[in-house]
UniProtKB/TrEMBL annotation:
This is tRNA N6-adenosine threonylcarbamoyltransferase. Residues 30-321 form the Gcp-like domain. The keyword Heme does not apply. Its cofactor is Fe(2+). Its EC number is 2.3.1.234. It is found in: Cytoplasm. It catalyses: L-threonylcarbamoyladenylate + adenosine(37) in tRNA = N(6)-L-threonylcarbamoyladenosine(37) in tRNA + AMP + H(+). Substrate binds at L140, V141, S142, G143, G144, D173, G186, E190, N286. Belongs to the KAE1 / TsaD family. InterPro entries: ATPase_NBD, Gcp-like_dom, KAE1/TsaD, TsaD. It comes from Shinella pollutisoli. CDD domains: ASKHA_NBD_TsaD_bac. GO terms for molecular function: tRNA N(6)-L-threonylcarbamoyladenine synthase activity. The lineage of its organism: Bacteria, Pseudomonadati, Pseudomonadota, Alphaproteobacteria, Hyphomicrobiales.
């Protein structure tokens, strides 16, 4: 038929997820059934993701999540056309669980297996949600990644900038931890910042003004620690002011770095009247950062595309969709001997 359907599996970090996604001949996608189980409760007592706990939780949950996603889609393992599983980058224990499960299903049903790069899932999501055409720019800001990437086509990506130290989500998490706020840090910092004075502390804006498109956030974290140490005792208002000042510094940094990226895109593709900047990753939940990116895109005559938050954070629909895109582009399925890769740029 002209519709292709695929089962997607995602287990690279602390979300266990399964989804069934369809793609029609015109390239339109539809999520038929999806389910995500967050392991947040299992990890929050440790202030971060514990790899061994994550791997065990994936083992326990994955089979029933796949059954649930299929049920929601009204499908069976026999009635999908292919299987897609994240094979990297990520925590190796979780990757092994998801990829081995995908391989076992592919072996048992005779369906092709697509071993998907998690970052490719994030990169192509906007084509599922907003039907974007190539090329476009993506800003991925999560707990593990901070990247500005030119998306030229399926399997055709050019990384323009990356962090030289901490990921942006990691900077939020470490800042929260320094200030005694809860994990994950991003939402806690954002909540506190609402009542804070963003001008009280002049935090550094790393790499601002430099021509390269990279990011750096570890100096910012150090400045937060020094600010907190310089005040004793630290009141709730102090914490709010530090959070607001931190968020302001991050916003200004992104504005400079991404602004340069938009200019570079424009000079490479002067014929595209309204190019798109897509945001992905958990940090995309931050309202101030979203507003900054929206204003920046308005000023540069770019379209700002922020997919629904549940598709910005880790999920299996994006992995299923990346598999469908690879299929539709005529890329070969993977051999069942394919190995998971914890590092995979
Ligand atoms: O994409 P994600 O759910 O998981 C991966 O890292 O793969 O991103 C989680 C990250 C965490 O570092 C968390 O603190 C951050 O996204 N985050 C936020 C907000 N919500 C989540 N950062 C800033 N502001 C938020 N509202
Ligand atoms: Zn991710």
């Amino acid at each position: 038929s002209s519709h292709l359907t695929i089962l997607g599996i995602e287990t690279s970090c602390d979300e266990t997820a399964a989804a069934v996604v369809a793609r029609d001949a015109a390239g339109r996608g539809e999520i038929l059934g999806e389910v995500v189980l967050s392991q947040l409760d299992e990890h929050s007592a440790y202030g971060g993701v514990v790899p061994e706990i994550a791997a065990r939780a994936h083992v326990e949950a994955l089979d029933s999540l796949i059954a649930e996603a299929l049920a929601r889609a009204g499908r069976t393992l026999e009635s999908v056309d292919a299987i897609a599983a994240t094979s990297g980058p990520g925590l190796i224990g979780g990757l092994i669980v998801g990829l081995m499960t995908g391989k076992a299903i592919a072996r048992a049903t005779g369906k092709p297996l697509y071993a998907v790069n998690h970052l490719e899932g994030h990169a192509l999501t906007a084509r599922l949600t907003d039907g974007l055409s190539f090329p476009y720019l993506m800003l991925l800001v999560s707990g593990g990644h901070t990247q500005l990437v030119l998306i030229k086509g399926v399997d055709d990506y050019e990384r323009w900038g990356t962090t030289i130290d901490d990921a942006l989500g990691e900077a939020f998490d470490k800042t929260a931890k320094l200030l005694g706020l809860s994990y994950p840090g991003g939402p806690a910092v954002e909540r506190m910042a609402k009542n804070g004075d963003p001008k009280r502390f002049a935090f550094p804006r790393p790499l601002v003004g430099e021509a390269r498109l990279d990011f750096s956030f570890s100096g910012l974290k150090t400045a937060v620690r020094q600010a907190a140490e310089s005040i004793a005792p630290v009141t709730e208002q102090d914490v709010a002011d530090i959070c607001a000042s931190f968020q302001r510094a991050v916003s200004r940094t992104l504005k400079d770095r991404i602004g340069r990226g938009l200019d570079r895109f424009r000079s490479l593709h002067p014929g595209i009247a309204t190019p798109a900047l897509v945001v992905a990753g958990g940090v995309a939940a931050n309202a101030e950062l979203r507003a900054t990116l929206q204003a920046l895109c308005d000023a540069h005559r770019f379209r700002f595309v922020a997919p629904p938050l549940n598709l910005c954070t880790d999920n299996a629909a994006m992995i299923a969709w990346a598999g469908l895109e690879r299929m539709a582009a005529g890329l070969p399925a993977d051999d069942l001997a394919v190995a998971p890769r914890s590092r995979w740029p």
